[in-house]
Amino acid sequence: MGIVFDExxxxxxxxxxxxxxxxxxxxxxxSGFEDIITHYTIMGNDMDSAxxxxxxxxxxxxNSITSNYSNGR
Length: 73
Prior knowledge:
Blueprint: H1 2-7, H2 9-26, H3 30-39, H4 46-56, H5 58-66
Helix pairs in contact: 2-3
């Protein structure tokens, strides 16, 4: 992946943000998710919109991370 990230650094930033979000949600790590949302740096791409949506829907995401209920996973 390093070669791709070297050639396309913006892709590397987006990919890293995505992976961190997925890891926090999968591990039910609310503080990790909060850190991502609060320390995210605007990049001028579609990830900005995704992070903004997460922030707007924080309460529901918080409930999904802290709840024992599942969608089958």
